[in-house]
Amino acid sequence: MRITGIEIPPPSCLASVRVTRAEGDFRQKLIEQFVSDVDDAESLERHRKLERTEEWLSTRDELEVWRVGCPCGDEKGKIFGVGVDQEFSAPVFYGCTKCAARGLIFDPSLHGYNAETAKKKKKVRAAPPAKAALHCRGCKTTVWRPAVVVTYQGEPPNIAPGRGLQDYFDAILIGGQCIGCSNFALRYSAECA
Ligand SMILES: [Zn+2]
Ligand SMILES: [Zn+2]
Predict the structure, then answer these.
(1) Ligand 2 centre from 22 Cα, in Å?
(2) Ligand 2 center from residue 21 Cα (angstroms)
(3) Are 93 and 111 contacting, i.e. CB atoms less than 8 angstroms apart?
């Protein structure tokens, strides 16, 4: 569903970190990491070939990009997860490099479409400690200007009372801009629907 233009609030999984809507070049560079110009053009081409009656919607219009920082005001930080056999997995935390504050970004048992629509009551699953810091593939730096992309593909969900559309994301991607080499990357992703 179209998210651009509706000013959706940040999802509640980002409640313990400082969140700002990503704008300008920073936003565009991260979106390109997820949906390249080629991907976008191919999607439009497929849509035209199928002669669909509904308007074509770019995946780029079905997402929001949030910058994640520290309540202390710092916009840099590390991204921690559980490291098992070279794999980086959830839960994912933000860690400030200035004041050492730490905040949860994403736990699949609590956040996203499936967690919101699950019949059973949510509970925090026992996970190994999230000690692995996500590093840049280019320069191995572990400090980022962190960002989160959440997507809302498909039909609008049935929203439970007291909840908001922003919490029904079907995918989440976590990364940002590397402080060392300035590259943009989305290094963690999860399907939530
Ligand atoms: Zn801080
Ligand atoms: Zn780098």
Answers:
(1) 20
(2) 23
(3) no
pLDDT tens per residue across span 63-116: 999 999 999 999 999 999 999 878 899 999 999 999 989 999 999 999 999 999
Q: Are strands 63-69 and 184-191 parallel, antiparallel or unpaired?
A: unpaired
Rounded to 5°, angle at Cα 148 from 147 and 154:
150
Distance 185 CA to ligand 1 centre (A): 22
Q: What is the pTM of this model?
A: 0.94
Q: Tokens standing for 162? A: 């007291």
Query: Where do the structural domains in the chain lie, given as residue ranges?
Result: 12-191
Distance from C-alpha of 99 to C-alpha of 170, rounded to nearest angstrom: 32
Strand 63-69 vs strand 18-21: parallel, antiparallel, or unpaired? antiparallel
Q: Quote the ligand 2 centre to 138 CA distance (angstroms).
A: 5
